[in-house]
Amino acid sequence: MIFIVYSILFIVGNFIGNVQLEDGSLCAGKNVTSQPVIDYCNSQDGYLIFRCCRSYDNESFIAVDLMDSNLTATPDFAHFENFNLSVVDLRSNPQLVPSPDDFLTLKYLDYLILPEQFDCPGGHDIWEVIDKTTDPVGNRCLRQKDFCSNSTDMCDENGSYCSANGPHHFLCLCKHGYHGYKCLRSGKFPTAAFFASTLVATVITSAVLYWTQRRHVK
Ligand SMILES: *[C@@H]1O[C@H](CO)[C@@H](O)[C@H](O)[C@H]1NC(C)=O
Ligand SMILES: *[C@@H]1O[C@H](CO)[C@@H](O)[C@H](O)[C@H]1NC(C)=O
Ligand SMILES: *[C@@H]1O[C@H](CO)[C@@H](O)[C@H](O)[C@H]1NC(C)=O
Ligand SMILES: *[C@@H]1O[C@H](CO)[C@@H](O)[C@H](O)[C@H]1NC(C)=O
Ligand SMILES: *[C@@H]1O[C@H](CO)[C@@H](O)[C@H](O)[C@H]1NC(C)=O
Ligand SMILES: *[C@@H]1O[C@H](CO)[C@@H](O)[C@H](O)[C@H]1NC(C)=O
């Protein structure tokens, strides 16, 4: 019994260990050299740790310097749980090309610096300030606008509303009291009725099986 408990603890521990390693892997490699990342980290009293800046309360990574990483695609930031990024520097990645799902979930991204071949996603609809940097050269995208505030028709079903989900990304969520496909159903999901009917069905099935199978037991 104790052996089984230890085995489970070992497996769970291993799993958690791996997840943490994976979360941190975006930060692995060189130390931060990006001046915008360093300045932002200092302004937030954060801690520089390899490529990243960790927040003052150590809860999340708030900035990352991904310069000189030979990237061909933007990392999937949604994959890393503890990242709540405000500043991302991707310059000096000459092979990096844009794709539609870039920066998904980065709601609070406010300062994005891209290599020169990579334009600010969404352009002036999304960023208040767009300009160029030198040394290294790149495009600067500053102050993300609230995509939903200017697109009331995005989620036009009555029960749904728009929720920003990173630059040029949004989600249609259901308002309180609505659920289902396109939030078209109103009223509470009938949880109690659902479980009650499942329970009744289970009890009846078990009883039937019990009586039919038991007859053969001598
Ligand atoms: C990175 O920074 C740490 C301390 O913050 C230092 O010990 C280490 O030598 C640095 N590594 C490089 C490659 O500069
Ligand atoms: C965050 O971690 C650093 C060490 O890396 C520590 O000095 C600091 O006290 C921690 N801050 C909090 C709020 O736990
Ligand atoms: C990027 O590629 C160059 C040349 O192919 C190599 O020297 C360098 O170490 C690579 N950098 C990283 C971070 O992988
Ligand atoms: C993420 O960062 C933003 C901006 O600093 C902050 O307002 C927000 O509360 C943070 N969210 C989480 C879940 O830490
Ligand atoms: C809203 O969108 C219109 C047209 O796309 C644009 O001209 C206007 O500046 C936007 N307003 C805000 C606050 O983003
Ligand atoms: C939305 O609600 C209005 C009245 O509140 C109704 O006239 C309209 O038909 C509804 N539209 C949809 C798609 O349910």
Distance between the termini: 34 Å
Return the average pLDDT rounded to an integer. Answer: 81
Assign a percent range to the helix content. 25-40%
Report the strand count.
Answer: 11
Number of helices: 3
Order of helices and strands: HHEEEEEEEEEEEH
Q: Overall 3D geometry? A: elongated
Largest sheet geometry: 7 strands, mixed
Hetero groups = 2-acetamido-2-deoxy-beta-D-glucopyranose
Q: Which range does the strand content fall in? A: 15-25%
Radius of gyration: 25 Å
- Give me the side-by-side strand order of the main sheet: 1-2-3-4-5-7-6
Poorly predicted spans = 1-22
Organism: Rotaria sordida
InterPro entries: ATRAID, EGF
Keywords: Disulfide bond, EGF-like domain, Membrane, Signal, Transmembrane, Transmembrane helix
Protein name: EGF-like domain-containing protein
Secondary-structure map:
Layout: H1 2-24, H2 35-43, E1 47-49, E2 52-54, E3 61-65, E4 83-89, E5 111-114, E6 127-133, E7 138-144, E8 160-164, E9 170-174, E10 178-179, E11 185-186, H3 191-214
Parallel strand pairs: 3-4, 4-5
Antiparallel strand pairs: 1-2, 2-3, 5-7, 6-7, 8-9, 10-11
